[in-house]
């Protein structure tokens, strides 16, 4: 075959070729294309979400619990209402769409398309179908499809969210009357008064004072004694917020609220038994409750004993304490005391109503499992193995069965994939109710007889199934997610990727987003979306038509999300990496994971790595450029917890334990002078989650260290990732510092 290439290349051609290769190698789009990249990124959410169908099912059950309906939103604005008979799995139209459209069109004197009925919600009441259309309420008699106008259903207003406040101040004048009507008790000032109904008051406690006052009372079931809790108030110190730009104008607005920080003196409690007949008061034998909420009694069937839960300060020990209300003697029925921490965020305890049995979740063997404490106070294992019980969804005391979710039990599967199981109280009869490969997001029917399961992975759309919870039998395949149009619009699903962690043995899981116009011959900077909070794992496992990472990738990046060591749901040893070690944030695993990704894919350029996150992720992203500047070059951090001494007590003492030098050693503020890369900080001035001064003090430390960085205060914003403006600033920062391009000049152009 003749060689069609010229034998000699001209200098001009060589120059053009070199430029082309350089552009391909760098992954930098020409400046003229960046504006179009922003337009694509900004439009991706609407484009993708409007071209995917049947990705979820929202079941509405009939009152008898044997039937349900749901709505499918289809192409071209069409929709259908589907009805299902649960036990048989029979499905079909929930009503005759054609007849209803004809009846409604005749009544409204205008055509109504049966495939585009002018309502989205319906309600069945016997033979009647209720709905709102054309600004009116309607009820349709399904026997003959006659319509009658009714009052439209009022729009439900969401309940107001009021801040939680445990009011434990003294001097409550509430009267606590015994159920038999013979005695009355009341807290007056700091102490407890009792008296026979109609008789004279008597002060039964003498130990109450300003620094230790009685605050709550409960009568025993036999009305012979009172359980009383005495409060020793902590400092109850305040945090302050300034709203610089109130909507009404005028002066800035100052607010303050009680907000306990690690190391603060907090409220503690001791429990007393009061005997009105003898006019005696005695403190129970158990140690005072040194942390948490005011304890309350859970009575056993004999009416004499009660239990309460006690978490020690620092989260190093949890106990279920049983108290004899006659003698005041106490003992621990359950006792968790690992060498690190008890994870309060995954705790579960269930108290039987017909017995004194207790179902309890514990990590005492290194894995989250269920145990049964029987009436004889003997502990029995229900589940076991190198896997994790995630949640308990239903405990049936009569059938003595438990419905729960778990992950990591099935070999050869992503250990984060959730499945649903059923097991007997004695640990027998374990049934996998959702055996298909994938992550299972399911809903129980009102009586827990049926399960509507949506199984998917990040790169495959969901299948929606109806199953019976007694044995897992598949009753019907309800729907299949439809992404044909989505693919036609250029959708690129994220890729799951697995690499070994710091120990060379443990698999670390993450996902990879690439731009829709991805070219494997180019090299792309990498951006990590990080949140290493130990209270969960965070890499998505189910399908979604759009996530914000896809829009960021569209600008010319590879965007990744990873669950490193120190996060939850992989067993106690994996989780314990975070203990007194939040600055670790799984970075050794994350760096190895991205290095392995680059080794497999030449398009991954790990000489240009950025990172972003919010809240704990804000702490992590800043920590990346402080503690690992050799790898992470650019960071954007929103509302970060930059010093664990300056954030809410429970979250920080949960993972960092009691106050010690390790708090300062791991602080972003303490280590601000280590900054080498590019850093952009956001903070909402009204942040009610992480006090804004956490970011302000990091800014102060960076200034004192003479460091270059960028800082954006968002007036009026609460705990936030920056909103639309912050998103644009974050994208601009990465485009400028990782792609080496100037973003569009937004002051001279239309909104992004």
What would CATH call the architecture of the domain at 490-748? 3-Layer(aba) Sandwich
CATH class label of the domain at 490-748: Alpha Beta
Rg to the nearest angstrom? 31 Å
Number of strands: 42
User: Strand portion, in percent?
Assistant: 25-35%
| Global geometry | globular
Average pLDDT across residues? 94
CATH names the topology of the domain at 490-748 as: Rossmann fold
Helix content: 10-25%
Major sheet strand order:
35-36-38-37-39-40-41-42
Largest β sheet strand count, sense and barrel closure:
8 strands, mixed
The assigned structural class equals alpha+beta
Organism: Fimbriimonas ginsengisoli Gsoil 348
GO molecular function: serine-type peptidase activity
Pfam families: DPPIV_N, Peptidase_S9
Signal peptide: 1-24
Structure description:
- The chain is of the alpha+beta class and 752 residues long.
- Among the domains are: 60-150, no CATH class; 167-314 and 323-338, Methanol Dehydrogenase, Chain A; 490-748, Alpha/Beta hydrolase fold, catalytic domain (Rossmann fold).
- Helix content is 17%, strand content 32%.
- It has 12 helices and 42 strands.
- The protein has an 8-stranded mixed beta sheet with strand order 35-36-38-37-39-40-41-42, sandwiched between helices. It has a 4-stranded antiparallel beta sheet with strand order 1-2-3-4, with no helix packed on it. Strands 5-6-7-8 form a 4-stranded antiparallel beta sheet, with helices on one face.
- The longest helix is centred in the first third of the chain and has 19 residues, at 31-49.
- The chain is globular.
- 39% of the residues are buried.
- Residues 1-27 and 160-165 have low confidence and may be disordered.
């Amino acid at each position: 075959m003749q060689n069609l290439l010229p034998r000699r290349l001209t200098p001009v051609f060589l120059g053009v070729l070199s430029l082309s290769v350089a552009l391909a190698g760098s992954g930098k789009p020409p400046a003229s294309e960046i504006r179009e990249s922003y337009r694509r990124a900004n439009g991706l959410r609407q484009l993708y979400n409007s071209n995917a169908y049947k990705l979820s099912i929202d079941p509405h059950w009939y009152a008898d619990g044997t039937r349900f309906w749901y709505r499918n939103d289809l192409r071209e604005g069409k929709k259908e209402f589907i009805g299902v008979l649960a036990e048989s799995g029979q499905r079909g139209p929930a009503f005759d769409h054609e007849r209803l459209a004809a009846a409604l069109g005749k009544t409204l004197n205008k055509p109504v398309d049966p495939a585009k009925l002018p309502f989205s919600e319906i309600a069945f009441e016997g033979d009647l179908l209720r709905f709102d259309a054309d600004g009116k309420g309607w009820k349709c008699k399904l026997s003959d499809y006659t319509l009658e106008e009714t009052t439209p259903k009022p729009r439900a207003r969401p309940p107001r969210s009021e801040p939680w406040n445990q009011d434990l101040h003294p001097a409550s004048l509430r009267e606590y009357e015994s159920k038999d009507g013979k005695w009355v008790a009341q807290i007056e000032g700091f102490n407890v008064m009792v008296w026979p109904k109609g008789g004279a008051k008597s002060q039964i406690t003498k130990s109450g004072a300003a620094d230790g006052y009685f605050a709550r009372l409960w009568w025993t079931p036999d009305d012979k004694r009172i359980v009383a809790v005495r409060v020793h108030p902590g400092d109850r110190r305040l945090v302050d917020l300034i709203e610089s730009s109130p909507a009404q104008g005028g002066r800035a607005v100052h607010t303050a609220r009680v907000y306990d920080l690690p190391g603060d003196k907090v409220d503690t409690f001791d429990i007393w038994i009061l005997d009105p007949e003898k006019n005696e008061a005695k403190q129970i034998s158990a140690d005072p409750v040194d942390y948490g909420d005011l304890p309350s009694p859970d009575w056993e069937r004999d009416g004499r004993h009660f239990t309460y839960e006690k978490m020690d300060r620092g989260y190093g020990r949890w106990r279920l304490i049983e108290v004899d209300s006659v003698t005041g003697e106490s003992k621990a029925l359950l006792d968790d005391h690992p060498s690190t921490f008890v994870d309060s965020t995954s705790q579960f305890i269930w108290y039987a109503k017909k017995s004194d049995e207790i179902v309890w979740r514990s990590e005492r063997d290194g894995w989250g499992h269920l145990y049964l404490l029987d009436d004889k106070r003997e502990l029995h294992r229900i589940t076991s193995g190198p896997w994790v019980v995630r949640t308990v969804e239903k405990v049936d005391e009569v059938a003595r069965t438990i419905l729960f979710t778990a992950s990591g039990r099935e070999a050869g599967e992503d250990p984060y994939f959730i499945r649903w199981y059923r097991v007997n109280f004695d640990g027998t009869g374990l049934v996998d109710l959702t055996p298909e490969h994938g992550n299972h997001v399911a809903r129980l029917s009102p009586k827990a007889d049926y399960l509507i399961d949506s199984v998917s992975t990040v790169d495959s759309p969901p299948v929606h199934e109806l199953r019976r919870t007694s044995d897992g039998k598949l009753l019907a395949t309800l729907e299949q997610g439809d992404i044909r149009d989505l693919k036609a619009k250029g959708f690129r699903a994220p890729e799951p990727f697995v690499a070994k962690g710091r120990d060379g043995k443990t698999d670390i899981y993450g996902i990879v987003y690439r731009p829709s116009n991805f070219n494997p011959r180019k090299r792309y900077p990498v951006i990590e979306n990080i949140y290493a909070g130990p209270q969960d794992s965070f890499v998505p496992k189910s399908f979604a038509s759009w996530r914000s990472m896809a829009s960021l990738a569209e600008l010319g990046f590879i965007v990744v999300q990873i669950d490193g060591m120190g996060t939850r749901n992989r067993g106690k040893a994996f989780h314990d990496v975070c203990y007194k070690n939040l600055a670790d944030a799984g970075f050794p695993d994350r760096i190895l994971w991205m290095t392995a990704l680059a080794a497999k894919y030449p398009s991954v350029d790990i000489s240009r790595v950025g990172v972003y996150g919010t809240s704990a992720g804000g702490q992590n992203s800043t920590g990346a450029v402080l503690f690992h500047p050799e790898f992470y070059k650019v960071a954007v951090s929103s509302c970060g917890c930059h010093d664990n001494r300056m954030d809410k007590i429970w979250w920080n003492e949960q993972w960092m334990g009691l106050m010690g030098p390790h708090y300062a050693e791991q602080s972003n503020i303490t280590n601000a002078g280590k900054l080498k890369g590019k850093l952009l900080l956001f903070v909402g001035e009204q942040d009610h989650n992480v006090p804004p001064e956490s970011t302000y003090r990091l800014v102060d430390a960076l200034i004192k260290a003479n460091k270059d960085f960028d800082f954006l205060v968002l007036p009026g914003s609460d705990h936030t990732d920056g909103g639309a403006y912050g998103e644009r600033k974050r994208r601009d920062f990465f485009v400028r510092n990782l792609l080496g391009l100037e973003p569009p000049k937004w002051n001279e152009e239309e909104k992004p």
